[in-house]
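Full entry
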Amino acid sequence: MGFLVIPLRDTIPSRQLPVVTWSLIAVNAAIFLVQLSLGPLQFERIVRLFGLIPARYTHLEWSLQVGLWPPEYLPFLTSMFLHGSLLHIAGNMWMLWLFGDNVEDRMGRARFALFYLLTGVAAGFTHCIAYPDSVVPTIGASGAVAGVLGAYFFLYPGARIIAVLPILFWPFFMELPAFTYILFWLLSQVIGATLSPAHAGGVAWWAHVGGFLAGALLLRPFLLPARWRPRRFQPDEYGLERAWRAGV
């Protein structure tokens, strides 16, 4: 997702089995295995049909000429389950594995599943607004994963992230507050979006920013009420909701 510092683990244990997080990872992995079984032409066709192409919705004459008519909106969902390479899916699923379980804890399974999909769709819309003339298909779960990071940022700012920074061939390990790690990640996305040409290097920078902001904005209505939470929180599990409800 365009950030050199690689998180290895966080300090917040899961309070229940993260069924939705694991299921999302399994679905993405299964679809990627199907992709690997396709020939190059078949794969290109799948990406063209189910990937997100902004010009499909902003240039209807072009859509008609290239056979993408009518401009269906299903790709806003399907694009987040397609990946272009092993490194692409591995990076996205690793971030989902690390941060998704804790967000799922605080939302519950059904709410988290809907939250994930909505932030992914929001990321897609942001990409289309940022690059309305792009004819390059965008695929990947990074927009939805960015939404999970947006929620984690406010839920667990005091959590500790064990991360590694590869310097040449030497790994430099560090421990960072989640607030610091995710803030630097967000700044890297904004800088990348600002300085890079449209879709440079295959990274949908603004989609990441849009997914993150959607995750932050949708967080509060998707949280489980306090009475449904399995146990009291430890000090590093508190987020901004301490200000929302006294004595949480």
Observations:
- The longest strand covers residues 160-167.
